[in-house]
Amino acid sequence: MISTMLSGRRKLFLTKTHTALQNLQRRINNPGADASFVSINSFTKRVNLPDYDVIFVDECSTIDNRAMKVFLEKMRPDTFLVLAGDTYQIESIDFGNWFTYAKDIIKTKGSNVELVSTWRTKDPGLIELWNETRNKGALITEKLVIDGPFSENIGEGVLNSEIMDEVILCLNYDGKFGLNNMNSYFQNANTEKAVVWRDWKYKVGDHILFNDTDRFSLLYNNLKGRIVQIELFDRRIRFTVDVEIPLTEQDCQNDGIEFIDIIDDVTRIRFDVLDFEEEMTDEDRKKTVVPFQLAYAVSIHKAQGLEYRSVKVVIPSSNAEKITHGIFYTAITRAKEKLKIYWSSETMQEVVAGFSVDTSRQKSLAIIKEKLKQ
């Protein structure tokens, strides 16, 4: 709406993740011929920047303090700035608490507007749960009752997968219900033949997430994919992968990727990973890194900005005291259609009881306000 009202201005749309960038591009009608859609990390690395009349920054809670400082130093002081985000989610892993305090510091009339609608789901039950959790309402435990629509005791249900676009969210990497064990279980349950490469094994059908590497610009961090073919050669392995972004043959050629086909809403691509050799060029050394990780299960922190048709959150009793309000809210808001939390009734009560107001935030806010007066 704000973008439409400001027609005729040169606009820049910034987000932290490419998932959010794609969502913006789909949802912004008529952004203008001169509009740009860029990740904030790419923006802050630029030396020369075009002049923009309006800059929209989405996913502000995931942007760290240092990146935001660089961004503010690069923009013109008279640029109209629109900041959007969810202060209830986890703060940036790279220390990003600036957005948490922004609404309490910027008090200009009309500068703070709370949006109550969501684009991720139309499911009324999910929306009610998200709202109750965000507001730390009195009905949270009623909505999360065991064997209700959203909660179940930890058991076989965790391991039964019925939807392709599904993820298990864990807090820890280790332990019985940790990320590593979950990924191992689901890969072992995959009946395709394992292909061993170095210390890892891969199977057709494996769910993957791409990592941040120097090799590919198109295959960005947290891009979802699925392995559809694996070929093992002398000193190299070849992966054919379906990725959830539209790519053209020219795009792929420019990025050193083999374009195969467009199938439904995914692009099928192919690339090789080389075995390491001491005499390699720097360019070939980049090709020795497998650019993705297994992602049947993902950490809650890494899941920021991602969305899935079905989300299963596993919270054993040993993790109860580590599940903050922000971590829990981030986890349950990754679901588009189905959400199930696996825990005991006692763990649920302990986690919800921990949603009390964090007094450290008020202390930090007082320090920031005092600093701004100086």
TrEMBL record:
UvrD-like helicase C-terminal domain segment(s): 294-340
This protein's record includes keyword ATP-binding: yes
MF GO annotations: helicase activity
Pfam families, sorted: AAA_30, UvrD_C_2
Annotated keywords: ATP-binding, Helicase, Hydrolase, Nucleotide-binding
Keyword Transmembrane found: no
Protein's recorded name: Helicase
